[in-house]
Amino acid sequence: MGAIMQEKMNLCTNATVQDVMLDAYEDNRLIHWTAINAIEREAAPTTLEIGLMRNGVFYSLRSETPGAAARGVHLRGDLRAPGQFVPCARFWGATLTNHLELYAAGWTED
Known about the structure:
mainly beta, 110 residues, elongated, 64% strand
C-alpha cells in the first residue's frame, strides 16, 4: 500500500468543454480514491463534473454548478478503481486562459 496525492493545473483553451485528468497507474494496481476535487478560481464554469476517464470515455460521478468563482466540486468516500481509470474533471463553459485545477488523494492496493 502507498499513499497517493496528485494535482494537475491546465489553462483553459476551450470555453465549451475541457477535461483535466491525472496520470494513469499500472493496470493491475487497485486505487482507493478518497478525495477528488476540481476548481476554477478566477471564474465559475457553467457546470463542473468529476469522474473517471478510461480510453477516452468519461464516466461522470458528480456534476454541479459552482455558482461563483473559487467554489469547487468535491467527491469524497472510498472510490475503488483499477489504475487505468484516471480521475478527471470536465469543465463546461470555463473562461479562456483561466486555471483549471484537479486534485486527488488516495492509496494503492497491490
